[in-house]
Amino acid sequence: KDSSNKNIDNYFLIEKINQLIEKDIYSEININNNSSAIKIIAKTVPSLQSINIRNSELEEFNTLGDSLTQKFENQLISRDLITQISDTILKFARHLNYSYLTIEHIDIDENGKVSFYFNSGIIDSVIIIGNYHTSKFLIDREILIKKNNYYNAAKACKSWENLNSTGYFTYVEINPERNSRNNLNFVVKVVEQGNQVFQIGARADNERYLQGNIDFYDQNLLNLGLQGSISIIGGFRNLHSALQILNSRFFSTQLTASANAYWDSKKVFNYSEVISKSDNTFDRVQNDETKFERYGTILSVGSQIEKSGKLDFATRFEYQRAITPEIPFPAFDFLSTFKVNFLFDTENQIYYPTDGMTINAYLETNLVPTAEISFSKIYFKVQRTQTFSERNTFNYGLLIGAADKTLPSPEMFFLGGEDDFYGMREDEEVGRQIFNTFLSYRYKLPVKSIFAFYFSIHLNVGRTWLIPETIKLSSLREGVGAKVSIDTPFGPLNLGIGESFFFTDRNQVMWGQPVQYFSLGVRL
User: Fold this and answer.
1) CA dist., res. 62 & res. 56, Å (int)
2) Pairing between strand 309-323 and 281-305?
3) 123-192: CATH class
4) Which one of 235, 305, 408, 496 is CB 3.0 to 4.6 Å from 517, fit for a cystine?
5) Alpha-helical runs (H) found in 149-193
6) Please, are residues 262 and 295 in contact by the beta-carbon 8 Å criterion?
7) Residue 10: what pLDDT?
């Protein structure tokens, strides 16, 4: 009975005990029952005096116990406090990339000393499953987590990306699994795919008519991690064939190397400009054409820079000639050059990017001073793509190139065409110096269709020059144009029109003739 002589039942006692438990300040609750009274004896939890990190071989945790003690000292060791300390420890571990560190046991004594026992998540072994034809070495070098390392989720994700990017597998799965020693096995499961790939493509446009390409390549030649390819690209006005062997990684380094033997021929129309001052117009007249032929070898070595950049050094040994109506059977001239090339590309799509930047820059000069052809050449192009309100995309950039007066005609800069300068024909202008700025706006039409429709407008300002002395602002050409594009399964379908113009010394506008553009298919 209670003080008012009422009977006390078990439910009443359970309710009182639960109330004490909910306060979370008692480590022990006992009931003392005799004939005269029922006593509930609750023992208060001790105050925290020290925190100790046990069985941790990680140096970063040596002083963690002291810092936690200073933060939580003299607080009652409640469940909430233990949870708060545990969360702090685990956040600290994750910040240091110990992704699988766990708290195995917590010991609390009567004097307020709290001890935490860890499992740091060490890797006992790396197990690869499913590589029936792919060399274990080619897989190991892509995995950043090694035996006796601590499990790191960031490295595990990067390893997964590396394995997928090799092209050897259709499926990659990685998992850390506990073993009998309570450590981890890093298990990699892969499903291999065929290494031989055959591809065909096609393109039709109003400049080079119908073109096609055939590519055959082996992604793991001789199971050595080499990539071998044979490609033929061309049509009525151009032909390119190449044999390439690429080593995407030297052993376990990030260095790459390639050897490329090729034959290339390309026909280019020659244009002249006819100005009519009476009606402030000008026209481009197609006179004849030049055919460039070249064959040779390119050897290069380089390195990937993060995910989006690449720096390589290349040597080129080539025989080339320019066939013109005046010289129909010229001899081949030999050149050898050394080239430093930098490429940076973060655009998220090939044909219709909505965000990203590309930078392409190179410096090329003679490797052998006594070669028949001697020149130096520099090139820089940067462009940025940004999208606003989902459908509105702006693309803008700058291109600059320069070379000395010994640059031969096959090595010159070309300007004009759907991808370079609206209002000009393809390769309409040629020179040893080039300047081109561009700005375009693309709108994704709200059309319900299985294909995406786009409308874009373009503005260009640029020119090429044969000698530096002729470079003047007044000689720049401007171009405007518009284009409708459809993203089809066969590649983009583009229909466009452009017109170039320039300003005279008297600030009069001279307009060129409209130029139509049509293209369907992939870029070759």
Assistant:
1) 8
2) antiparallel
3) alpha beta
4) 496
5) 153-165
6) yes
7) 62
The continuous run of DSSP H or E covering 318 comes out as strand 309-323
| Rounded distance between C-alpha atoms, residue 235 and residue 213, angstroms | 9
Instruction: Answer for the pair 340, 363: CB distance below 8 angstroms, yes or no.
Output: yes
Question: Residue for token digits 């499913």?
Answer: 130
For 169, left (φ over 0), alpha (ψ -120 to 50), or beta? beta
Is the CATH code 3.40.50.970 the one for domain 50-119?
Answer: no
Tell me what percent of the residues of the chain surpass a pLDDT of 70: 91
Average pLDDT, the chain: 88
Q: Is the pLDDT of residue 55 over 80?
A: no
Q: Give the Cβ contact number of residue 423 at 10 Å.
A: 25
pLDDT digits (tens, 9 = 90+) for 228-255: 999 999 998 999 999 999 998 877 777 8
Select from 95, 58, 225 the least CA-distant residue to 87. Answer: 95
Distances (CA, A) of 314 to 250, 256, 333: 16, 11, 20
SS3 of 485, please?
strand
Q: How far is residue 254's CA from residue 249's CA, in Å, rounded to a whole number?
A: 6
Going across the sheet that includes 184-192, the strands are: 123-129, 184-192, 169-178
182, 119 Cβ separation under 8 angstroms:
yes
Any idea where the domains of the chain sit in the sequence? 10-44, 50-119, 123-192, 220-521
Nearest to 176 by CA among 127, 140, 119: 127
Q: What is the mean pLDDT of residues 73-99?
A: 88
Q: Is the pLDDT of residue 41 over 80?
A: no
pLDDT for 48: 86
Quote the pLDDT of residue 75: 86
Three-state DSSP state, 405: coil
Rounded mean pLDDT, 290-296: 96
- For the cut 80, the answer to whether the pLDDT of residue 272 exceeds it is yes
**For residue 347, what are the CA distances in angstroms to 160, 353, 456?**
22, 6, 18
Task: List Cα–Cα distances, 46 to 25, 49, 83, 200, 514, in angstroms.
Answer: 9, 9, 16, 76, 89
pLDDT at 18 over 70: no
Architecture field, domain 220-521: Beta Barrel (2.40)
What is the rounded radius of gyration, in angstroms, for the C-alpha atoms of the chain?
36
Structure confidence by residue, pLDDT tens digits, 308-322: 889 999 999 999 999
Cβ-in-10-Å burial (0-12, 13-18, 19+) of 265 comes to middle
Say whether 220-521 and 123-192 share the same fold: no
Please name the amino acid found at residue 396: Y
The kind and range of the H/E element at 17 are helix 10-22
